[in-house]
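User: Hi! I have a protein structure encoded as tokens and I'd like to know what sequence might fold into it. I'm fairly new to this, so please keep things simple.
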């Protein structure tokens, strides 16, 4: 645990609203008289009472459908600029305190309508939503550098916490309209001009049973033409195993969509869990880095159901991860929604180590190789130096 905690880590797949602290969500809900589903509150109670190990290895299963039910409550609680600022700051702090040295946080811009706060803290447009997050990010980055310089000069601690670099990916929700997606992509392009160091890419996420990547493809092409890098969620729902398999239209459509995603060659893929065999084989030949989110995968595929909710038993049934590890496929380990899945990156590394029998060198290797997948390419070399140096100290 000590090694995973102090290992400098890279987080590439974290949704802002899904990373909300559970305690903050409960507090915001109470202030706004939003009644959260009993499932969520039970989770909270369990969280506080259970002994830590039992919670770690026995988190309650949470299906894909349940996750999206929970997601629908978060905007009711994060409904003004004050709450948005709070969750952004807290999420950055939580990742930094978990020794994440580079974070790509993703979020879909929202119009916040509540005006029950002081001016500047209530309602905002989609553009102001992104600007709010970006100004907190750049302030945080400067504070991190100052804190680190100060700690280095005044502390005798060998493992002084390294500074975290935060970056933003603008999300498109696939359950929305093409017009909404277009608005988000245009905003991302505008934001690059205003915050060139901080906006690094765009992504497609949201309920995978709704709509199809192909509806949004021209918009992602436009983003690419403007220099933004792209990550696409894929393989979250079952599909036909190859183009000749089955007459089931839903499975066929999922196969065709997955083919179209791979043909587009995004810079990274989110999850890529249930990709058809022939497409997975093609990826093995011409890899695209995959953002793997172990706990989230176990939960949304309901793999832990047969193991009394046990995460370790569930992750052993992961359809791809063993193969990716053995063949050194370019994948990274991520949290997805640390608030919803009650996790952090230390737990994710520890879980993968326990299930697949990985040692310190293997984990360090996974963390360092993730640097090749970051969207802020100019940061690569400095990050590798920083991490390699820390890993060396950690081993001694
Ligand atoms: P937000 O963009 O509001 O900051 O983050 C929450 C949103 O991220 C959710 O409403 C959902 O659209 C998306 N999201 C979070 N986790 C997942 C996931 O595992 N799969 C997919 N497809 N979308 C997700």
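Assistant: Happy to help. Inverse folding works backwards from shape to sequence: for each of the 396 positions I chose a residue that suits the local structure. Here it is:
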């Amino acid at each position: 645990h000590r090694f995973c905690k102090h290992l400098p880590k890279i987080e590439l797949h974290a949704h802002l609203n899904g990373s909300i602290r559970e305690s903050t969500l409960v507090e915001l809900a109470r202030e706004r008289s939003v009644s959260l589903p009993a499932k969520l509150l039970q989770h909270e109670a369990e969280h506080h009472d259970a002994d830590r190990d039992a919670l770690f290895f026995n988190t309650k299963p949470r299906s894909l459908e349940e996750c999206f039910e929970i997601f629908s409550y978060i905007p009711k609680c994060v409904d003004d600029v004050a709450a948005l600022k709070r969750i952004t700051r807290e999420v950055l702090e939580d990742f930094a305190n978990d020794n994440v040295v580079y974070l790509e946080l993703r979020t879909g811009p929202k119009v916040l309508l509540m005006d029950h706060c002081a001016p500047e803290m209530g309602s905002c447009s989609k553009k102001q939503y992104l600007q709010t997050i970006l100004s907190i990010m750049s302030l945080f980055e400067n504070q991190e550098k100052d804190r680190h310089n100060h700690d280095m000069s005044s502390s005798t601690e060998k493992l002084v916490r390294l500074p975290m670099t935060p970056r933003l990916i603008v999300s498109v929700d696939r359950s929305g309209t093409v017009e909404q997606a277009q608005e988000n992509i245009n905003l991302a392009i505008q934001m690059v001009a205003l915050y060139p160091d901080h906006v690094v890419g765009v992504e497609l996420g949201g309920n995978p049973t709704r709509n199809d990547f192909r509806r949004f493809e021209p918009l992602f092409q436009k983003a690419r033409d403007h220099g933004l890098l792209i990550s696409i969620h894929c393989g979250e729902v079952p599909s036909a195993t190859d183009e000749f398999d089955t007459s089931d239209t839903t499975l066929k459509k999922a196969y065709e969509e997955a083919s179209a995603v791979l043909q587009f060659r995004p810079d990274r893929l989110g999850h890529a869990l249930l990709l058809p065999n022939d497409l997975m084989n093609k990826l093995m030949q011409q890899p695209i880095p995959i953002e793997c989110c172990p706990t989230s995968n176990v939960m949304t595929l309901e793999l832990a159901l047969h193991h009394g909710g046990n995460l370790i038993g569930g992750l052993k049934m992961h359809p791809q991860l063993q193969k990716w590890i053995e063949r050194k496929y370019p994948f990274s380990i991520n949290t997805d929604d640390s608030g919803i899945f009650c996790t952090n990156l230390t737990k994710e590394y520890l879980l993968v180590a326990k299930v697949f029998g990985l040692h310190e060198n293997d984990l360090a290797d996974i963390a360092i190789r993730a640097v090749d997948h970051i969207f802020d390419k100019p940061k690569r070399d400095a990050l590798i130096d920083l991490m390699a140096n820390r890993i060396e100290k950690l081993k001694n």
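A useful reference point when you look it over: The pocket of guanosine-5'-monophosphate is lined by residues 15-18, 71, 107-108, 171, 173, 205-206, 208, 233, 236, 296, 336-337 (CB under 6 Å). Feel free to ask if any position seems puzzling.
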